[in-house]
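Sat 14:20. Reprocessing the chain from the morning session after the first attempt stalled halfway. Input below, unchanged.
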Amino acid sequence: MALVRFHDADIINGEETVIYSLNMEVGEGDLVYILGKVGSGKTSIIRTMTAENKLSAGEGEVCGYDLRILRSRDIPYLRRKLGVVFQDFQLLMDRSVHDNLEFVLRATGWKEAARIDKRIEEVLKSVGMETKSHKMPHQLSGGEQQRIAIARSILNSPSLILADEPTGNLDDETATGILELLRRINKEDGTAIVMVTHNRSIVERYPGRVFICKDESCVEDNA
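Finished this time. Tokens:
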């Protein structure tokens, strides 16, 4: 089953169309890269997948939700099916790692404290951060913050993770650790990943399907 499907879709940024006639399918367990220069529309595709940007024209479906007819009240339910990892981590700086993750679980319907604590323990262990639960974000390195962000993205066991330049603010060694972690989640858990990047060396190290954004289009590179 396709987790993401765009057919002849126009992608907008604000009022401006940045990509015309996008055709893309992402299946279960896929690793898909979206490459292109700054301003080429890469992030706008991700924002369309999360329903932050409206679908301008054509067809689009994400995790069973038709983006053409998606009601505002249903957007949170779509987003619960996704994990999203940002370049700048987007952790809540006024609360601990544990409380960052608890906030997400409670916001997505979890109520029982014991289950919440158990799930937080599980995801932190899976990203190698089990000893950091009590830390505040500012007490963590950039790489550690990104690992917490990845833990946050897998809390609800999504079938799809959207990663927007997840290593953009990290040094090479730290970035490698983050990429290895995402690749393990992809391989071992079967979680599909769509990753926006401008760094072709990532694709060479961790091969996957590649879409190139250029000249108001985004097409798969089958070379």
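The chain has two domains: 1-81+158-223, 92-157.
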